[in-house]
## 1
Amino acid sequence: MVNIVSRIISMKAIFEELLKTKKNFVFIGEAGSGKSEIAMNFAMAFAEILYGQAQSAEQCANKAQSAERCANQAQAAMLPNISPRAVHFFDMDQTKPLFRSRDVREQLEQAGVVFHFDEQFMDAPTMVGGVREHLADPGSIVILDVGGNHQGARMIGGFAPFLNRGETANYFVINPYRPWSREVLGIDGTLSEILKVSHIQKVDILSNPNVGADTTAEEAATGDARLREMIGEYVEVGPICVREQLAKEIEQNTGCAVIPLRLYLKGIL
């Protein structure tokens, strides 16, 4: 068996490996599945890899430098085989007024992430600018935090030519505790509707079993096992996403790869 501690520590290596072949990362799924938390953790991990050796987030903040400037100054410290890039985060959630990544944008910007969003007028959907340009730009690492269900996914349909390229990873996030993800038919219905309007051809599944910020290791492991039992014969289920305090226990008990999450949105309650 692979050493549990070393596997969790190697998460940085996994993100480094991703950056060698991928530049765009898209997060879709049912409303409330936890896409935003996972998307923010990806952005923070990429920022740490790309900028961490040049300047800390605190140094950037103290000098009142923009995220773009931090990225430019970090280029000299890039890892081997990873070209100089800037991390761009697009908050495209127009389907709900609460628990959106824009609520903690300052934390991402302090880490060197360039944050993009557009204010809504009442309930009218708006499209943030610059998505197409950055998806096409080899110098941009792009994270798209897409709104829930097919209503949110409809916003990215026009970018399908970029989303279906080999340099893009599309993640369908499933929380088996959510109402429409408790059975195969519900998951299949949600995924089918999202793929239809977004025109995405291929997705990777991320398991995100939780009942909130106080989810126990037992609840996370039970939910993940149930998800794999439900859909495992149809599609491969990727790593389990759990809050970082549970990561070692979950990996030891399940034997599955784990993505430890820091909960950023919890702090806005």
## 2
Amino acid sequence: MLLIAAVCVAAAPAGAQASSCCKPADLTTIKGIAYDYVAVTALTGATVSVVEYPNLKTRVDKSGGFALKVPKNRKSTVVVDAPDHLRSFSETRVRKASDPLLAFGVTTLELSRGIAVFANIPLNASQTAPKECLVAASVSVKAAWKFKTLAQAKAYGSYGVAGAKLSLVKSGKGGGSFRGLPVYFGNGFPDKSLTSTVSGVGMFISVPAGTYELIATKPGSRFSSSTAVCKPGRFIELGAGQL
């Protein structure tokens, strides 16, 4: 992280701590939603923070939305913490005000433990996080780029893309793809017999530490990519949107 000579306090949304790093003109706003993955209800009161700027925090409002300000032209990783739910990390990227809504569909710890048993996912000693890095990837239709609220996403219904194949490509020296094949979800649960998305969701298990790019492919379609910074214990939610 670069040291900044001039320090100032930026205006922050209600319930948030200000980020002491930049002039207001050097900030941009991240907007997103956080909801229970099964119930599709707002995670009201959940804490949303930025890994690279831990003093910058806010909470999810009653509609499921959140907003916080982060420095422009610097990578940031958003993390959501909610009681009795799995801690969830976003992709790591430079943020822009024009970015689509950042969506977190967060599973309860109880459900996460059930999926872990079903899909042979190693968990930590306290059974509250994956032992290694776990990456959940969702492929969404083009209309999802326009969602502004959780209510809009719910009203649209299913927006996952079927028939897409997912891969993780490691960045930097050595490169190459993560050799573990994704486990695709069918009817809300992992199904190892599947070879492509059904509901638009896949999962990469026990990903080694490193930086990876999510690639989604389907004949006749193009998708955006996203970047995961994997570390042991992280559950990362990545997205690939139809272009």
## 3
Amino acid sequence: MTSGTAWAAVAGPKHEPPLRDRSSPSPARSGETSAEPGRPTLVFDLESAREVDFCAPWAAGVSVAVVYDACRHEFEIYRGEERRLAVLADRLNSAERVVTFNGERFDFRVLAGMGFPVAPQRSVDLRRLVETAVDDRFAKGNLDDLARLNLNAGKRGRGCDAPRLHQAGEWDRLTEYCMRDVVLTYRLWRHCRAGRPLRLPRGRVVTLPRERL
């Protein structure tokens, strides 16, 4: 775990991610359970250590990764050292479900390219589900767009700032940024699992199939 500074800045009450609103129950009351004991639902995001080339995302490396265990209501922080990434990959591969936003296209590819393949029992990539549901590429939106439209909350900072924070050794700020992305992803996932419509840019609205979530 990183220092208490980053936790206090992002987490709010113990084991309860921030950004709670009336439409999204808190994890402690959400009743989220695993179908298989010991195989949790994990929400995951990572930040790059270097500028990203999307033709070879693994070359960007990992500065920090954050996992939120939706059954235990706990965050886990992983720095980009090889031994920690091996633990991270094992953790993700042991999960019943891994929830991400664009994880299949970026985060998983980064880890796989670094020698840590991730193939969870079930991957729930919210970005991919939205892309499947909407044929208008301008209406799909990014994590910040969907969070602001549906949660009345958004990102703080930009992912492209992560390499600079990493190089400057600003671990608290970097971890806080990544944790916030994880929380936004978790809240959007809960929003969709409850069967609520998902508002998108350009006035589009979709309801994602619960069986895919």
## 4
Amino acid sequence: MGEPGERSDANERPVLLRVHLGERKGEGKAAVAEAELIAAYGLRGDRHAGRDPHRQVSLFAEEVRQELLAEGLPMPAESLSANLFTEHLALDRLSPGTRLRIGTAELEITEPRQPCRSITRIDHRLPRRLYGRCGQMARVLRTGSIRPGDLIEVLPADPAAPPPETEIADPLRQPSLFD
């Protein structure tokens, strides 16, 4: 593959393969036929939505999951704690700031996703095998509906947007007792 986000095969366009939501902590994320991404919040109905402005949605490459399955490692999609499974997209090569248009929504990549320790419940070898190949975290820039089969359009980073790590301070906001 050449550039980040480049298709793995000239005939294959990047696509959203699956959408998963998890309502309760400690349970897997169930596949859904359609979902709504909400700007500055995340995926409606997912337990991680609204918690961290830079980690609203998690993305995982189906190719990585299939490779590990072929090696004999158990990789149930429901247990990986990812929201969006992509195909034909060099997901782990995308840089923070890269934007993705999926369905009518738009996301911005904020940081690489790290394998969490709870993944050892699936197999103790997974954290090491997933290091550097665990997908991406993103924030939602534009509210919209998404569904499996939606094409993914890779857009360049917006040079006018603040970096994902930076929050814009409101100059009119008065400090409170809770700051």
